[in-house]
């Protein structure tokens, strides 16, 4: 009978203050067994050799390999030959993924979404492999992050989050500039995703995205939907709705103006899609965040409330 997979809990590794980042070192990695997490990990191999096991598949590891493990993905390390690694544990729901222009980087989408989704199909050959100088810089950044987390001095939250996002951005840039036959296909899909993120308010067609990806229509759609869980056009609609939410919370513009700003040419279509995705109308959403009370029965809406 197969033994149940052990699940590592956040309260076993994360500080009691709730900060969502932890650095752990395995120097060397000891036999551990197949396990999953309540959190995510960035794994960076710093030395030695071993095999990364994910259920029935296993892949060779060596210094410079870097990859992301989602919480629900069981994995283990076997055939250990002084394998040394650094794990950066993080709560995926607590990191500021919408910070700045991170989502406009093809390397970010490849590292955190596409490569994990296609790891089995690509036999792990599309993973990020850091050159020695890049590995040294990544380790240096992690050491600074580790120092902040250990000291927990005033301001450590800001500094630690800054260093974490710096590390993520650096790894994404490394992935983007290291285009090889092994990862080219994933990066081409990531180019299309980044194009959507940058130009979401413009007219974007499926044919444009297929041309950017340099893939066949069938292969592009299959790859995109497998990794992202949506068709390219549905992904675009969800992104526009998310951007609309940001504006509705703070902007004085009308709902129609906001709809146009994020790429919808028809405000009625915008309202239908908004309700489908968010579960309420744009007007209700705006009232909720701007603390404008709903009118009572028979009471006319004010000009402000109907904006």
From TrEMBL:
CDD domains: cupin_RhaR_RhaS-like_N (cd06977). The keyword DNA-binding applies. Keywords: Activator, Cytoplasm, DNA-binding, Repeat, Rhamnose metabolism, Transcription, Transcription regulation. GO terms for molecular function: DNA-binding transcription factor activity; sequence-specific DNA binding. Residues 190-288 form the HTH araC/xylS-type domain. The keyword Signal does not apply. It comes from the Bacteria. It holds the Pfam family HTH_18. PANTHER family: HTH-TYPE TRANSCRIPTIONAL ACTIVATOR RHAS (PTHR46796:SF13), HTH-TYPE TRANSCRIPTIONAL ACTIVATOR RHAS-RELATED (PTHR46796). This is L-rhamnose operon transcriptional activator. It comes from Rhodopirellula sallentina SM41. The lineage of its organism: Bacteria, Pseudomonadati, Planctomycetota, Planctomycetia, Pirellulales.
